[in-house]
Specification:
Blueprint: E1 7-12, E2 32-33, E3 36-37, H1 38-48, E4 53-58, H2 63-69, H3 73-82, H4 85-93, E5 99-104, H5 111-116, H6 119-122, E6 127-130, E7 134-136, H7 143-153, E8 156-162, E9 172-178, E10 184-192, E11 203-211, H8 215-221, H9 232-241, E12 248-252, E13 257-259, H10 263-276, H11 281-294
Parallel strand pairs: 1-4, 1-6, 4-5, 8-12
Antiparallel strand pairs: 2-3, 6-11, 7-13, 8-11, 9-10, 9-11, 10-12
Domain Nucleotidyl transferase: 7-274
Family: Belongs to the UDPGP type 2 family.
EC number: 2.7.7.9
């Protein structure tokens, strides 16, 4: 796919408290999902969409992320000497994916604050935000559809997914109006983690956004919301309510998504992805069936 001038932002400054003690010294984004760290899947997704300029927003103790995407000459020489070209190719791939930059968030003040930190790097251009908790299967493209919708409308575009109403309290929920396209909706409002009875729909915001630069001045004046953090949802709500602007649209994603945000879903993601792999699935799937029968 051709290169896009649009840049991507990956917030990766969270503390990862759900995975302690594993994340005491290791960033949660570096937890392995089969044989790659979670953040590599996200960078690969951006690169597959033609984005070659990526800014990672990091916090303290996140040097492992930048180390991972650097080349490691001594390892590459060792693998070359051993003739292990398959592993050499996999090692080198992570350092050739894109031009990756890093910026410290400083104080962890929420997703909205992390996005605001990208202002200097992004400038006056639109940009893509990809969260590392949501892994999108590379067989089901999402970002390219969202970028096309943004180019068509000039609006902010969020990824939405239908979830069980019992689980909507775990997400931002969107109030929407239908369009002529079943997979595209106009977002009229957003509610952060509502109770089931207060949710405007069962369409949950998942971790992909295409945002105009006009979101930055809104974030600059957005007061801390839930949890004392600056919420990106609040800024999107303001864009949606602006009747004179292009508003906010949602792309309803019906593909495969792997949630690595908590421990059980993280384990499920590993099992699902490994089961689909040609090199692992044939051995893993029969064992899974036997294991399930013993439960």
């Amino acid at each position: 796919m051709g290169k896009h001038s649009i840049k991507a932002v990956i917030p990766a400054a969270g503390l990862g408290t759900r995975f302690l003690p594993a994340t005491k010294a290791m960033p949660k984004e570096m937890l392995p999902v089969v044989d790659k760290p979670a953040i590599q899947y996200v960078v690969e997704e951006a690169a597959s969409a033609g984005i070659d300029d990526i800014l990672v927003i990091i916090g303290r103790n996140k040097n492992a992320i930048s180390n991972h995407f650097d080349s490691v000459p001594e390892l590459e020489v060792k693998l070359t000497e051993k003739g292990d070209m398959q592993r050499l190719e996999r090692v080198m791939k992570s350092s050739d994916l894109a031009d990756i930059h890093y910026l410290r968030q400083g104080e962890p003040k929420g997703l909205g604050h992390a996005v605001l930190r990208a202002k200097t790097h992004v400038g006056d251009s639109s940009f893509v935000v990809l969260l590392g908790d949501d892994l999108i299967d590379d067989r089901d493209p999402l970002i390219t559809t969202m970028m096309a919708e943004h180019e068509r409308t000039g609006a902010a575009v969020v990824a939405l997914m239908e979830v069980d109403p019992e689980n909507i309290h775990m997400y931002g929920a969107a109030a929407v109006e239908r369009t002529d396209d079943d997979d595209i909706v106009r977002v009229t409002g957003l509610v952060e983690k509502p109770a089931k009875e207060d949710a405007p729909s069962n369409l949950a915001v998942i971790g992909r956004y295409v945002l105009p630069a006009s979101v930055f001045p809104i974030l600059e004046r957005t007061e801390p919301g839930k949890g004392g953090e600056i919420q990106l949802t609040d800024a999107l709500q303001e864009l949606a309510a602006d009747t004179e602007g292009p508003g906010v649209f949602g792309v309803v994603f019906r593909g495969r998504r792997y949630d690595t945000g908590d421990r059980v879903d993280y384990i499920k993601a590993i099992v699902q992805l490994a089961s689909d792999r040609e090199d692992l699935g044939p051995d893993l799937r029969p064992w899974l069936k036997e294991f399930a029968e013993r439960l």
